[in-house]
């Protein structure tokens, strides 16, 4: 009865341990549990938790745990709830809308057919972030349809929100969302790796929480480009691999390209003063500093604004007035989200500075916001003919296959957004790390995954595609190394920093579309 009751109701919280058998409070007692309640170990794993076995008709206790990593190591899967490993999927309000497969919450997390669950953290109230989760889901679908993971295990992903309603959470509220998402994914579920987050500030927050709680989970951001992340303390102990990786290049390169290959070559602005307007987060501060150092301290002036002030009409008016007083030849706007860029441009409408040449970075490359048809004519005029930089938009047959899959599965053109290919690549990179880490069994965590990711820049060249997955998988599962070529471009990871240098694209707005002007290779 016990196994049937727990499996039928999904109640695995508030369990009482009595006489070596796990029983639900108020549901039944040892006196009315008959010895024929279980007939196999699998039945106990599904009903009670990983490593529960059927002994003389009774299910034994599941193992104790501190995190879900313990459950995978001991029993091959499961989640850690109230100090014990359970098989039922525990719900979380921040992580309740996006799954792959979509019925993941109804599936057991332990047992013969249980998937390996990975995580993703993005501000899903933002269109750009949601598109990045679609890239992750396409990769998971491809791996499952190809050769799966070791021993035929399937993958699954849970997406957690860290932005709140309409991505408006800032400051302490955003810290709380980031911490709760990480505690659930890296703590309760014990996922070996997480794809995300989008921003550098959120990445720094999550790294700090990872260290504080000693979670052995890898973070792979497709879009956090701040130079500050290169030296972030992301190791749980001396001699262990770093747990923060990224499939996008550092802004150390993007800032130089903006200075030397965009503004210095612009026939109107070259040599003139440039106002650098930026949101004062880790991304904005880092990129603004790199650009100013490259372009010249005497030819540029910084105009920061706090993220929370972007909804403050008075603060925006003051910012616009200060920039206008500086009378620059051009204006560089640095924001994480294109909606933030639009708010800054709106504040400049009607001032002489609105007639200057505008330049943007990767955060603004979002067609749904920067090229929205309902923008005021004055704002559209400021955007028309503008130029920007971003990690290069991919091209070629591999990218076109990914693009076609995104269009067919989600009706999304990834070319309208930056970092889509990087998110897709990040999912495959982590999966290859899992292949290496799990080659001998389930006794692994993110530290071994990071070791495997460090083996992706040597050996035979393997494209990140579903057709090449079996070859790359078999090589790593046998203890070898591969050299992966990402959909976003070459991924020559430096295992010491977890970074892959990449190409930088110069893009422009022309006829209400993004067009590529040129692509700059790594130096």
Automatic annotation (TrEMBL):
**Keyword line:** Membrane, Transmembrane, Transmembrane helix
Q: Does the keyword S-adenosyl-L-methionine apply?
A: no
Instruction: Please verify whether the record's keywords include Transmembrane helix.
Output: yes
Q: Would you say which domain of life the source belongs to?
A: Bacteria
Q: What is this protein called?
A: ABC transporter substrate-binding protein
Q: Which Gene3D superfamilies match?
A: 3.40.50.2300
Q: Where in the cell is it found?
A: Membrane
